[in-house]
# Entry
Amino acid sequence: MPVVAKDKADGKEHVHNRIAVLRAERGVSRRELATALGVHYQTIGYLERGEYSPSLHLALRIAAFFEVPVEVVFSLEPFPRLGST
# Structure
């Protein structure tokens, strides 16, 4: 079983995400995504910065919005940097 990375500052597990990347690729604002999901636009910012982990239901709705599998959007491990090999 893989070890889940924890933040050294608070010792909590974090859910990493690609919401900002997906939004940028598709030209979707935080407010537009929030409206489509029925959440406050600040929630999207909290999610993108890793300050808030989504419920399973919200994570699935975000993945459905972008029409990708949930594991494309969220991971327990950090995503590799774009352009790195």
